[in-house]
Amino acid sequence: MKFSIVAKFLLLFLIPFLALAQAKKDITTHQVTEKIYMLEGRGGNIGLCVGEDGVFMIDSKFKDLSPAIKKAIRSITDKPVKFLINTHLHGDHTGGNENFANDEVVVVAHDNVRKRMLLLQSVKGNKKDLFPSKALPVVTFSENINFYFNNEDIHIFHVNNAHTDGDALVFFKTSNVLHMGDTYFRGKYPYIDVNSGGSVEGYLNALKAGAAIANDTTKIIPGHNEVSSKKELLAYIQKITTIVERVKNAINEGKTEAEVIDDESLSEEFDATMGDRFIKPEFFRRSVYKSLTNQ
Ligand SMILES: [Zn+2]
């Protein structure tokens, strides 16, 4: 009996989990334009601008993926990575920072990314290992910063209190490619990290800021999921706005957090496509409620 339970457990959970964990070391390279690439795999989408000056990189996924990421980059170019921009502090976008900093790559991010990493360093427990000193940005900015690299005008700008309080959008003006980090989840409900200074209203403003600089031919790299367009971004804004307005009305009617979480009618027509195993509809409704009521 005991053996059968253990065997079932192995068969049902452990073996598929191990297989999945192994498969998830894969990195897939997508060429977005002549100079811009997107590296897909576990964690946030990496953006690369590749040219004569070297590689300009956006986000670094998880630590254990660095060898696979470096291999993917080497298959595109022999030139070294010179700069690594973090769109925000989350570990699925910054986990590889140390491994790239060890290669003399300059890490750049918004002021609050560095501040929050330092704060997490001071927290007792295993979080300390998340952000070793070498992983910290060595250049930070408060509003925006420009790079002129690979004959590309690269404009990086901060958006206030959106997914976190340290978000940056990266616009490759010459190539007309916009990397939005986790201020855009493309087709899925977003995670709004209220505890790291995110807010649903700031998130909507960030989406609108992205839409404002994009045109019909702009390629938009979201923090997660496939390459997108302005048309899709505008449709996404509509959906999120609709849900936010409904939750606002529910709050004005005196509905409690539990009632908003339970009320499927607030988002029902979007749930089948927008909900996923990470951000379920009820989880998103809860984060909208919490953000709007400043909890
Ligand atoms: Zn994130």
DSSP strand tally: 12
User: What small-molecule ligands were found?
Assistant: zinc ion
Distance between the termini: 48 Å
Provide the CATH topology.
Answer: Metallo-beta-lactamase, Chain A
From the alpha-carbon coordinates, what is the Rg to the nearest angstrom? 20 Å
By secondary-structure content and strand pairing, the structural class works out as alpha/beta
N to C succession of SSEs: HEEEEHEHHEHEEEEEHEHHHH
- Can you list the strand order of the major beta sheet? 1-2-3-4-5-6-7
Low-confidence stretches: none
Q: What fraction of residues sit in β-strands? A: 15-25%
CATH class: Alpha Beta
Level of helix content? 25-40%
Describe the largest sheet. Answer: 7 strands, mixed
Quaternary status: single chain
Q: What's the name of the CATH homologous superfamily? A: Ribonuclease Z/Hydroxyacylglutathione hydrolase-like
- Which overall shape is indicated by the principal axes computed on the Cα atoms? globular
Number of DSSP helical runs: 10
How many domains, in number, for the residues? 1
Question: Which CATH-level-2 architecture?
Answer: 4-Layer Sandwich
Average pLDDT score? 92
